[in-house]
Design a protein that fits this description.
192 residues, six-stranded mixed sheet, binds guanosine-5'-monophosphate, binds magnesium ion
């Protein structure tokens, strides 16, 4: 698999993000709200790169459809979200692509009456963004390619890769062969 962003570069940028959040939210009631499941690797690394008191919370977002190549209807499950009233929230996701997911998350989080809401992502596919919103914090801007690793999956695999990679056709086929029941979940929406 082609490595797009090596492990060491991710580590550097995630530490920088932790430093920025620590400065900007010093003395503030910060909750970092990780979006399941793709953000879990980033969440674990990022919170250990911060130096201020903060809380961690989780929300689930997924786009399901029959076809692997098309994004489906966005579903947000906020049953795990604790009280955010009056708190400063940073929604943390793996990737900001079209932006529909983050846009939906903003609406869902607003219902909890937080003091402020910002977004942070590892990756931003800026050329594909269609919503009137940009991530407040991002570690890398990337081209329009389907990527996996560091939390991002294809067919429920590859989340454990320590780097961000661009899978080739053989990688994708292998993942489906190993896990045929998973077919139809995350897919290369960036493909033509
Ligand atoms: P958006 O709603 O911004 O179009 O897409 C965000 C969601 O789509 C991400 O949370 C992620 O689940 C999925 N996604 C978008 N691009 C990619 C990609 O290149 N690789 C993987 N694995 N997931 C992606
Ligand atoms: Mg996601």
């Amino acid at each position: 698999m082609q490595v797009l962003i090596p492990e060491a570069e991710i580590r550097t940028r995630v530490r920088e993000l932790g430093g920025r959040l620590s400065e900007q939210y010093q003395g503030r009631p910060l909750t970092i709200l990780g979006v399941l499941t793709g953000s879990v690797v980033l969440l674990a690394d990022l919170i250990r790169a911060t130096s201020i008191p903060l809380r961690v919370a989780l929300i689930e977002a997924s786009s399901y459809s029959g076809a692997r190549t098309r994004p489906g209807v966005l579903q947000i499950d906020s049953r795990l979200v604790p009280d955010l009233k009056g708190r400063d929230v940073v929604i943390l996701d793996d990737i900001f692509d079209t932006g529909h997911t983050m846009s939906g998350l903003y609406d869902a989080v607003a219902a909890f009456e937080p003091a402020s809401v910002r977004s942070a992502v590892l990756l931003w596919k800026s050329a594909r963004t269609v919503v009137n919103l940009e991530p407040d914090y991002f570690c890398f801007q990337i081209p329009d390619a389907f990527v996996v690793g560091y939390g991002l999956d294809y067919n429920d695999e590859f989340r454990n890769l320590p780097y961000i990679g661009i899978p080739d056709d053989a990688d994708l086929q292998e993942a489906v062969r190993r896990n045929p029941d998973g077919a139809g979940r995350t897919g290369p929406t960036a493909a033509p």
